[in-house]
Design goal:
The complex is a heterodimer of chains A (266) and B (323). By secondary structure, chain A is mainly α. Chain A is 74% helix and 0% strand. By secondary structure, chain B is α/β, with parallel strands linked by helices. Chain B contains twelve helices and 13 strands. The chains are: A mainly alpha (266), B alpha/beta (323).
């Protein structure tokens, strides 16, 4: 192999760089596969919750207080967002902070490849996990539990991408601020409860008092559930008196800006 | 000090561009002066050591030299390149192993090396490098299953996978057992033989003595001595000394009159003569001519550690754990 490669002309710089990024992504994907805790949280847990909710009889009757929807139907967007949140709060920042702790980002900054590539590779891999999770929850809810197919697939895709944008930017902000990998867990768990409350995990948004619903509209997960639910049940654009897509876009920009501002490479 | 100043220039053949040139480097963190004024020059193919107590500014100096930190003042050139302005080119030709770096536990040795290999335009062969580093059988092992010494050698391998012209190794043998340490020394000599310039930060005097062509001793952010390990050692004692038991009393002036002898002391019944040049021969021959036999002769040559202690007032053995 080595004698052969010597006789070949050197690949152009850009192709070589593409290879390098591909190699980093490959190793990051291996790590995600070999440490499946975060995949269990972001894909396994939503699927299990869906199966449980799908078996509860009271959740499967149309309810007038939910606007004629079943409890299960209102929970599908919440479950989708739950998976994303697990991933964004724990799965994404965890490895990044441990790479800083282990000196890997520092080591990379002595090579021709900048350490930001490792962040980008991590985002690419986690994005794959996020999309897989969303797809699985959607397909299973329709195929196995008879939920209606999304009214606006394009609107759903856009809503999901913006939800991922806002949540991943929040994950990167946690990675920027958390001093150690252990503190990522603490921060993630702490943030999880209020975020998921406003998503309607414990109390469906439709049953919240008006004030809570208003607050929920402007939280990242409340907006995400609103956008996803809207595009699934009423079509595009998914607007319920406020503009959840704009709220998500704004969170994406603000969190990404702050993450960039405060990120420490060592 | 005059001798060290004369030696600031690398003893390279005239016209050869130095591999590393550091001139009047200064770096402060707030009010803390990490590096005050450091200058040295390393010839291509040289193994150059940087010694000094903890907190002396060694690591900061190295981090500035490789472009990881921006110095406050001074100039740095690596094969003529500025590590700040020519970052990309410098990273291509300089391989770095930093202190206390780890890697993801669930990646295999081969996977890590293949990844880092893809960063460089003209990298070395993974199998060959693993062979040289004694990790050939470990290619498929997870990083977390490696011993401390194996991790350290993998770290050195990552510094060398890009086939660098200059290798910068910070405390590369810290935490290694004596056997692994000697193996690593052989490896370093091997890469030097292939024309790679090696810049070595160490607190092991034995390592510096064995490997380095020249060493710079840094203390409180300044170069306090720069010379070959042997010359530094000799300077530390002001020469060599010979200790012996005379078979009979003798006239001490016989010895102190010799040009090689600087000083004569008594230690119990033993006599210690300090001096330079062909000291031992001169002493023994002179005594023999006076009918006296020197018994129980012990040569005491000072070493780099003595130089370290004398020049910094600190004990290098206390620098065991990396900061």
């Amino acid at each position: 192999m080595s004698s052969l490669s010597l006789s070949l002309t050197r690949p152009p710089a850009r192709a070589a760089r593409r290879t390098a990024f591909g190699q980093i992504v490959r190793n990051e994907a291996r790590l995600v596969r070999r440490q499946p805790t975060n995949m269990i949280g972001s894909i396994g847990l939503p699927v299990v919750l869906m199966i449980i909710f799908g078996e509860v009889p009271t959740l499967n009757r149309p309810a007038t207080e939910l606007g004629g929807l079943t409890g299960f139907d209102t929970y599908v967007p919440v479950i989708m967002v739950l998976g994303l949140t697990m991933l964004a709060l724990l799965g994404l920042p965890g490895p990044l902070v441990s790479y800083r702790e282990l000196g890997i980002l520092r080591r990379l900054s002595t090579t021709p490849v900048p350490p930001s590539w490792l962040l980008a590779a991590q985002v690419v891999v986690q994005l794959g996990v996020a999309l897989a999770g969303l797809l699985i929850v959607n397909v299973v809810s329709v195929a196995a539990f008879g939920a209606p197919a999304p009214k606006s697939p394009a609107g759903l895709a856009l809503s999901c991408l913006l939800a991922i944008g806002g949540l991943f930017a929040l994950g990167l902000l946690i990675a920027a601020l958390a001093p150690t990998a252990n503190s990522v867990n603490a921060i993630g768990r702490l943030a999880f409860i209020p975020l998921m409350f406003f998503a309607g995990l414990w109390l469906p948004r439709a049953l919240m008092p008006a004030v809570l619903q208003q607050i929920s509209n402007y939280t990242p997960l409340g907006a995400a559930v609103q956008a996803i639910q809207g595009s699934m049940q009423t079509g595009f654009p998914p607007v319920f008196g406020s503009a959840p897509l704009l709220v998500l876009a704004a969170y994406t920009l603000v969190f990404a800006f702050l993450a960039r501002r405060f990120f420490r490479w060592e | 000090m005059t001798t060290s100043l004369e030696r600031l220039e690398a003893p390279a053949a005239a016209g050869v561009r130095p591999a590393v040139e550091v001139a009047h480097l200064r770096k402060t963190y707030g009010t803390l002066v990490a590096v005050d004024d450091v200058s040295f020059s390393v010839a291509e193919g040289e193994i150059f050591g940087i010694l000094g107590p903890n907190g002396a500014g060694k690591t900061t100096a190295i981090e500035c030299a490789i472009g990881l930190r921006q110095p406050d003042a001074g100039t740095i050139r690596l094969l003529g390149l500025d590590p700040q302005a020519d970052r990309d080119k410098v990273h291509e030709i300089v391989g770095v192993q930093l202190q206390a770096g780890a890697l993801p536990g669930k990646l295999r040795v081969g996977e890590i090396l293949e990844e880092y290999r893809s960063f460089y335009r003209d990298p070395g062969d993974v199998g060959e490098l693993l062979e040289v580093l004694g990790l050939a059988g470990k290619r498929g092992d997870f990083y977390r299953s490696l011993s401390g010494g194996q991790r350290q050698r993998l770290s050195v391998a990552l510094a060398l996978i890009g086939r660098p012209r200059i290798a910068v190794l910070d405390e590369m043998t810290t935490g290694l057992d004596p056997k692994a340490r000697r193996d690593t020394w052989e490896l370093i000599e091997g890469i030097r033989d292939r024309g790679v310039t090696v810049l070595l930060v160490t607190h092991f005097m034995e390592e510096a003595e064995r490997l380095c062509d020249r060493v710079a001793l840094i203390d409180s952010g300044r170069v306090v001595a720069l010379d070959t390990p042997a010359s530094l050692a000799a300077q530390a004692r002001g020469g060599k000394s010979v200790r012996f038991l005379p078979s009979a009393p003798f006239d001490e002036d016989l010895l102190t009159a010799l040009p090689q002898v600087a000083r004569l002391e008594h230690q119990g019944q033993h006599v210690v003569v300090t001096g330079s040049g062909e000291l031992v021969n001169a002493v023994i021959l002179t005594l023999a001519a006076a009918g006296v036999t020197a018994r129980d002769v012990q040569l005491d040559s000072s070493n780099l550690e003595d130089a370290f202690v004398k020049l910094t007032g600190k004990n290098p053995d206390k620098e065991g754990a990396p900061a």
